[in-house]
Amino acid sequence: MSEIKVYTTASCPWCTKIKNYLTEKGLDYQEIDVGEDSDSVEEMIALTGQRNVPVTVIDGEVIVGFDRKALEEQLK
Amino acid sequence: MYDLIIIGAGPAGMTAGVYGARKGLTPLVISEDIGGQANWTKNVENYMGFTDIGGSELMNRFKEHMDAQRLIYEECRAREVRRGQSGIGFIVQCDNGKEYQSRALIVATGKRPRMLNVPGEAEFRGKGVSYCATCDGPLFRNSSTAVIGGGNSGVQAAYDLLRLGADVHLITNENITADQALVEKISGHPKLHIYEWHQVRRINGHKMVEGITISGMAGDGDAAGKVISEATGDATAGTTWDAFRDATEINLPVEGVFIEVGLEPNSQILKRIAQLDLNEDREIKVDCQCRTGIDGLFAAGDVTDVFGKQIIIAAGEGAKAALAASEYLSYNGV
Questions:
Q1: Topology (CATH) of A4-74
Q2: Min Cα–Cα distance to chain A from B111, Å
Q3: Chain A: closest CA distance from residue B229 (Å)
Q4: Distance (Å, rounded) from C-alpha A50 to C-alpha B313?
Q5: What whole-number distance in Å separates Cα of residue B193 and Cα of residue B166?
Q6: Considering chain B, what is the average pLDDT of its residues?
Q7: Which of A20, A33, B151, B186 is most buried (most C-beta within 10 Å)?
Q8: What does the pLDDT read at residue B312?
């Protein structure tokens, strides 16, 4: 089972899309709301070198934005 | 072959789907997402029947409505449209490698954010430059930010950022044109600095955005220059001065730059359709029945030249396009 983290903000529709995608696949994930926690913003920037959400980390591999192909590839 | 394909699943596309299905057609809806631009609107307060609803939530309601009609939905990005063999119908090529063919086609592909096209914009995209204040605004809580654009989207972004405790420099190359009700929400806020008749020269930084350089719209005829800025040496944010307008560059230290300078239509997928009529803004010209002038090709919503880029208008246009497509198919024996 893959270890999945999703960096989100509460009002971001693409974040909702990723969460729905993972839920439909029956996958567990850890959600980090970077809008509520400035430490996690810094963590996300250090990890990705950028400052947009959503960010999905699957077994250490980073995917910025909702990229269905990249998600499917990483979840194979 | 489908009788009807609808490209786009925003308010126009989804409404077209529902109306098409209720006319007994079996429409295929092709879209890379559900809701389109409407998703980016935090609060919709002018869609009848809802005094206040999130744009994304409203689009979920549309999707439920579409699902209730058992529409066929293909989640992919339409890359290109071309005429079918012998000029009959249309072939839609998607980024999933598949092609779909139909007798009639409704294009409801909406618009996408327009870029500012200044130095630093591409370099710092995602590194402080954002086109979605709804998404990325919360990452700039209590930070210094700039919002570029004085229309409804720009003022709404400024309002959202102010609520997050951010300092907001609102910059527009004309007067603020947002609805009065929206302007009143931000007016006089102590953390708001408004620069009307100013343009962005460049976005500065190293690894991330560190600031922007702006200047007045010098030589711009009789445009009434107004500015609220520390640069005046009279740093009373939330107040408006007259007649500060020259080409002197002003550097503003900001971490976030939210670009809200309008939208451009996603009409490029029709570039292989000969004789399609676009207006000077590259919107698809349609008549009162959403006909494009190409046999069997209809268009609806913000991608067209119809007046008023509003969810409620797009939905109505989608309904009209589906009714017109149904009539067209019926007339042609489908």
A1: Glutaredoxin (3.40.30)
A2: 17
A3: 27
A4: 37
A5: 11
A6: 90
A7: B186
A8: 97
Per the CB < 8 A criterion, the answer to whether B129 and B209 are in contact is yes
Q: How many CB atoms lie within 10 A of CB A40?
A: 15
Q: What is the pLDDT of residues A31-73, one digit of tens each?
A: 999 988 889 999 999 999 999 999 999 999 999 998 888 898 8
Residue B192 covered by a domain: yes
The verdict on B69 and B20 lying in the same domain is: yes
User: Is the confidence at residue B139, as pLDDT, over 50?
Assistant: yes
Chain B nearest-CA distance from A34, in A, is: 6
Predicted TM-score (pTM) of the model is: 0.76
CA distance B26 to B12: 17
Q: B216-242 burial, b for 16+ CB within 10 Å, e for fewer?
A: bbeeeeebebbbbbebeeeeebeeeee
Full domain range(s) for residue B235: 129-259
As a residue count, chain A comes to 76
Q: How far apart are CA B119 and CA B45, in angstroms?
A: 36
How many domains are contained in chain B?
2
Q: What's the confidence (pLDDT) of residue B245? A: 55
Task: Indicate whether B106 and B49 sit together in one domain.
Answer: yes
Cα dist from B130 to B94, B122, B146, B160, B262, whole Å: 27, 10, 10, 14, 14
Residues in B closer than 8 angstroms to A53, CB to CB, are 135-136, 139
Q: How many residues does chain B have?
A: 334
Query: Which of B108, B109, B104 has the alpha carbon at shortest distance from B91?
Result: B104
- Pairing status of strand A4-8 against strand A55-58: antiparallel
Cα–Cα dist B243/B157, whole Å: 26
Query: In chain A, whose CA is at the least distance from the CA of B130?
Result: A52
Catalytic amino acids of B? Answer: 132, 135-136
Interchain CB distance below 8 Å, B35 and A13? yes
Q: pLDDT, tens digit, for every residue of B268-326?
A: 999 999 889 999 999 999 999 999 999 999 999 999 999 999 999 999 999 999 999 99
pLDDT reported for residue B246:
61
Distance of alpha carbon B65 from alpha carbon B175, whole angstroms: 40
Match 């020269």 to its residue by tokens. B201
Buried b (16+ CB within 10 A) or exposed e, B62-71: bbeebeeeeb
Question: Under an 8 A CB cutoff, do A51 and B127 touch?
Answer: yes
B65-94 pLDDT, tens digit per residue, is 999 998 999 989 999 999 998 888 999 999
B252 and B270 co-located in one domain: no
